[in-house]
Amino acid sequence: MKQNRTTIKVRYQETDMMGVVYHANYLVWFEMGRTAFIEDLGFKYHEIEQQGVYSPVVDVSIHYKKPVRYGDDVHVLTWVEEYDGLRITYGYEVRHEGGEVAVKGTTKHVIVKQDSFRPVSIRRSFPEWHEAYLQAMEPQA
Predict the structure, then answer these.
(1) For this structure, is 16 an active site residue?
(2) Is the pTM of this model over 0.90?
(3) What distance in Å separates the CA atoms of residue 76 and residue 102, rounded to the nearest whole number?
(4) Of 4, 45, 99, 108, whose Cβ has the fewest other Cβ atoms within 10 Å?
């Protein structure tokens, strides 16, 4: 399965009073990883949106395993967890440089028309994107 690795340098403003990364910032990091993953597939979000569609998050799951602190260097691994032609679930792991998992999570998305927010079939409307997702889920040699 194809994965993207996005490096994050933890900034002071991302931490809370306890000195650890504020929980909602991981969702921002997930988005950074997802955007980089999509670019690795050969697409860009803004170009997709120019075609009259959005990709909203419809579900999110996040599990905190180990704190990340200011000054830490971590990376976000991103991949396609599930895809059925309509819904895409991305998987994520935030890992410390030594490989230890700090956070795991998923976000589920659909593609909707900008004007009506009605779902769009990726399989039918964006066949090149559909094929890229299928290939990304295949085992890597």
Answers:
(1) yes
(2) yes
(3) 10
(4) 99
As separate numbers, helices (DSSP H) first and strands (DSSP E) second, the chain gives: 4, 7
Q: Where are the domains of the chain?
A: 4-137
Query: Measured in whole angstroms, how far is the alpha carbon of residue 131 from the centre of its chain?
Result: 18
In this structure, whether the domain defined by 4-137 belongs to CATH 1.20.58.60 is answered with no
**Residue written as token pair 């860009």:** 44
- Both structure tokens of 45: 């979000």
Inter-CA distances, 76 with 50, 97, 99, 128, Å: 27, 10, 11, 26
Which of the following is catalytic: 16, 59, 73, 84? 16
Q: Summarize pLDDT for 62-79 with one digit per residue, the tens.
A: 999 999 999 999 999 999
